[in-house]
Design goal:
The strands form 3 sheets. Strands 1, 3, 4, 5, 8 and 9 form a 6-stranded antiparallel β-sheet that branches. The chain has a 3-stranded antiparallel β-sheet with strand order 2-6-7. The chain has helices at about 10-30, 35-55, 60-100, 120-125, 195-200, 235-255; strands spanning about 110-120, 130, 135, 140-145, 150-155, 160-170, 170-180, 190, 215-220, 225, 230. The protein has about 260 residues and is an alpha+beta fold. The protein folds into 2 domains: about 10-100 and about 225-255, no CATH class; about 110-220, no CATH class.
Length: about 260
């Protein structure tokens, strides 16, 4: 909630959904064959009507089912091309929005986990955590040899942006930790290499090339957004609202979808 009791995340998702719903409908209008889509939908309705009118005539019913499948395939083919124009920018937009809306910052006094994945058992055994002022560990490190992973439990006494360091042998690797409130840009994991995995899951620069630490992660709480009496993951709320907006705009603009 904002300082005036306004549900800021919900308003952001609502505003983005309205814009995206409108843009997708307009893009669909100018990248699709509207006349062919109208004809395909009419054929599909006609075959469905035939099922109701001649449901006691088995040959007609079977032919209608076959024609329904063909008409559906035709419609999906016509609708697929506009989807190609929006899927890439929409995916990029959702990945970026998830940095702000997918998780909440840690709260002061809240315990959380910092984990590091090592390249091998030797690097795992040598790994240690170095914390800045304001962060302290609350338990001994836990080693998970099967995963080449080590986990620390940490707590913060006050809000702030921190840099935690994982040291292995003579190499040190940092990870940002955000404690506070609001909608900061969060990154749950920092990775070495793996471009596409970093694109999807990390908002930090890649770990430097090394043969010791492959990933450092912080356990942020998932954000739930209150809307219409329910708690939503922002992605589900975005899909529902953008689809609803799309159908409203399509009716207003007279666009066949």
């Amino acid at each position: 909630m904002g300082s005036l009791g306004v549900n800021v995340p919900a308003l952001i998702v609502l505003g983005i959904s309205l814009v995206i719903g409108f843009v997708m409908v307009v893009v669909f209008r100018y990248t699709s064959d509207q006349k062919a889509i109208h004809v395909a939908k009419d054929h599909l309705k006609a075959h469905l009507l035939a099922l109701r009118l001649f449901q006691d005539q088995i040959p007609v019913v079977l032919r209608s089912y076959g024609r329904i499948m063909l008409a559906t395939g035709r419609y999906l083919h016509l609708a697929f091309m506009p989807l190609l124009f929006v899927i890439v920018p929409l995916t990029f937009l959702m990945v970026q929005l998830d940095r702000y809306l997918g998780s909440t910052p840690l709260e002061a006094g809240q315990q959380f986990l910092v984990s590091a994945r090592a390249a091998d058992a030797a690097a795992l055994n040598e790994a240690s955590l170095q914390l800045p002022a304001g962060l302290v560990t609350t338990a001994s490190a836990v080693h998970i040899p099967a995963e080449n992973e080590i986990v620390w439990r940490v707590v913060s006494a006050q809000d702030g942006n921190y840099e935690v360091n994982v040291q292995s042998a003579d190499q040190t690797f940092s990870k940002r930790v955000v404690v506070g409130s609001g909608l900061p840009r969060l990154s749950a994991v920092r990775l070495r290499g793996k471009f596409w995995e970093r694109f999807l899951y990390s908002a930090e620069p890649a770990l430097p090339d090394n043969h010791r630490i492959e990933a450092i992660a912080v356990q942020y709480p998932a954000r739930e957004i209150a809307f219409a009496g329910f708690e939503w993951n922002w992605i589900w709320l975005f899909f529902v609202l953008s689809l609803a907006a799309g159908f409203v705009f399509k009716s207003i603009l007279g666009i066949e979808i």
